[in-house]
Design goal:
six-stranded antiparallel β-sheet; Alpha-D-Glucose-1,6-Bisphosphate, Chain A, domain 4; seven-stranded parallel β-sheet; Rossmann fold; about 500 residues
């Protein structure tokens, strides 16, 4: 089959793609910016040949004219948890409407949509929006709609898992809002993948919507305590009625790695019970024994420990504050810029130094005065930025588009020995941080570390000069420790 995959750079899409091509399908990945798309690095060349990329923006229907129409099925995995409630609702319906118009020009016989469980009354804006998207996609003239409605998805890198993990690992005592008593039916990411592939081209699933969930119905309180038990932590939870939705959003944002817009959306949605209706269960069509909550947690931590996190919630730009056209910044401007350049020759084998560059940030840290980087992360969180808590997807691998603490990877080219980061932190300007290994005239090698900043107005210039004294402390020691890290036991 030839399948169109939307949301190919998102959390679900990145995991579904290898499964589809592994099953022998040809997959067209619809992305806004092909420069953000990376082929899965775990697939053999023969399977990579089954993947193609089409550029298009669902909010710009004219951009879909060049997207192939000779498809057999499509996955609609476009979700956003950011933006104001009214704008968000309208934009999601527009995207779905434009996609439905596109579907009507194709040979597709099925469209598959991953939605949210909506069996409760008084649904949040985001659950109502997803429910309405189902209605819009159902208007397609030829493509039959299949909907999978899920509650909390548990897997390494999922937003729900990472938030629960953050809360449990950082807070021995939690003062929490009342929504912690809401009920949900969590499902493991492996089971979601199973259902997404099993409903494909399955006539029994055409024109139907199913609830999918694991065997456990839990309150969010029970989920927190369940993760604490998995990690063998002692945790105490106190529920109070005084935390309003806005205060709860700030509480979630400041304690966890989530963005404020995502925290706000989650808090609003968590007031609803998201429990499967047995009458809508997919088990009547596709029998399958899902993992329970504890098993899903254990598998997630196993993937983290084995450095096998395929995708993360923060990969999707809708979950963050980054502008959508950030890849236009792939070349550092030359005019109107401030620069701090450090050049350090070294004698170590190039692969060892390159490996140190590729492991920067996350648990490894920034090689110099990590407490200052953490302070900068706290300051960034205080003004609505991502802070340092996002970490990185993998401790050793980087690819274009990856989040890296409060940076975003623009270029990760080991062949040319270049790593380029773009600041996603809140700044009165734009900032880049580049690492290169360059050849010297005498045949030796050196690390070039370049911090570049383009100020925006007077505030931007004042910011640069205010942090300039710290550059001498941070950047010179940073490049030195980066080169020497791991050599004869030397640490940053």
């Amino acid at each position: 089959m030839k399948i169109l995959l939307t949301g190919a750079t998102g959390y679900i899409g990145q995991r579904l793609l290898p499964l589809l091509v592994g099953a022998g399908h040809d997959v067209v990945c619809l992305v806004r910016d092909p420069r953000r798309f990376s082929l899965p690095d775990t697939l053999p060349e023969a399977l990579l040949a089954r993947i193609s990329v089409a550029q298009g923006d669902l909010l710009k229907p004219d951009s879909l004219a060049a997207v192939p129409t000779d498809i057999d099925a499509a996955y609609y995995l476009v979700h956003s948890m950011s933006g104001g409630s009214e704008d968000f609702f309208q934009l999601e319906q527009q995207s779905a409407h434009h996609f439905t118009q596109y579907l009507n020009t194709t040979t597709a016989r099925q469209v598959i949509y991953l939605s949210g469980i909506a069996n409760d009354s008084g649904l949040s804006v985001h659950l109502r929006s997803r429910y309405q998207v189902e209605a819009v996609l159902g208007e397609a003239q030829k493509a039959q709609l299949t909907v999978l409605r899920a509650s909390i998805i548990i897997g390494s890198g999922s937003a729900s898992f990472e938030i629960i993990r953050d809360l449990v690992e950082k807070l021995p005592v939690m003062v929490t809002p009342r929504w912690l008593n809401s009920r949900c039916q969590p499902i493991g990411i492996r089971d979601i993948m199973f259902y997404l592939t099993e409903v494909l081209d399955n006539p029994a699933c055409f024109g139907r919507a199913f609830d999918v969930g694991g065997p456990d119905v839990l309150t969010y309180r029970q989920m927190l305590l369940g993760l604490a038990a998995e990690r063998r932590y002692k945790r105490w939870i106190v529920t109070v009625p005084v935390l309003t939705p806005r205060l709860s959003s700030w509480w979630l944002y400041l304690v966890t790695s989530t963005t404020f817009s995502l925290a706000q959306s989650l808090v609003e949605s968590l007031k609803n019970d998201t429990v499967c209706d047995p009458a809508k269960s997919i088990s009547t069509v596709i029998p399958h024994e899902c993992m329970n909550y504890q098993a899903a947690l254990a598998l997630a931590f196993q993937r983290i420990e084995q450095n096998e996190v395929v995708s993360s919630w923060s990969d999707a730009l809708s979950s963050g504050t980054m502008r959508q056209d950030y890849m236009d910044a792939i070349q550092i401007p030359k005019n109107g810029m401030f620069f701090d350049r450090q050049l350090l020759p070294f004698q170590r084998p190039v692969p060892e130094v390159l490996d140190n560059i590729w492991r920067i940030g996350g648990d490894r840290g920034w090689y110099k005065t990590d407490w200052l980087w953490r302070l900068r992360g706290i300051m960034d969180k205080a003004v609505g930025g991502p802070g340092l808590r996002r970490g990185r997807r993998s401790p050793s691998r980087l690819r274009a588009g990856d989040p890296l603490d409060f940076w975003r990877v623009l270029v990760a080219d080991k062949a040319s020995r270049r790593l380029l980061l773009y600041a996603e932190m809140k700044l009165p300007g734009e900032a880049w941080l580049q690492f290169r290994i360059v050849d010297q005239q005498d045949g030796s090698h050196a690390v070039e570390q370049l911090a570049a900043y383009r100020p925006r107005g007077l505030a931007g210039r004042l910011y640069w000069y205010s942090v300039l004294p710290f550059h001498g402390i941070i950047f010179k020691g940073m490049v030195k420790n980066l080169v020497e890290y791991g050599e004869r036991g030397i640490a940053a």
